Description:
Layout: H1 3-39, E1 44-50, E2 53-58, E3 68-75, E4 78-87, E5 90-99
Parallel strand pairs: 2-5
Antiparallel strand pairs: 1-2, 3-4, 4-5
Amino acid sequence: MNQHSKKLRRAIELWLKRHSNLTVQSMKKASACIAFLQLHGCIVQQVTVRKDHVIIDIDQPGPWLKGSIHITRVHGSVRQVVKTTSVRGCQVNWIELEQHQLLRREG
Length: 107
């Protein structure tokens, strides 16, 4: 293996190690956030951990957790509003269902 190949291989190894360390840090952040959410009555449905970002999907939160509208979807006479907020450095999402008068079908 020539000198250039050795340097390239070392650079890749260092990058992967740094990437791995960031992922471990994100997992620790996710774990702390999950414990906090559970302590406050939230049910965690799904967790996505990336090297620099954590997304946690929960069931309906209590009134203590406020979020901004992220996505609105309509299914029949129900509007699904995906809300999102930041909790302990993690993105937390949940879905609120709303009956909507204009979406009701006449029978």
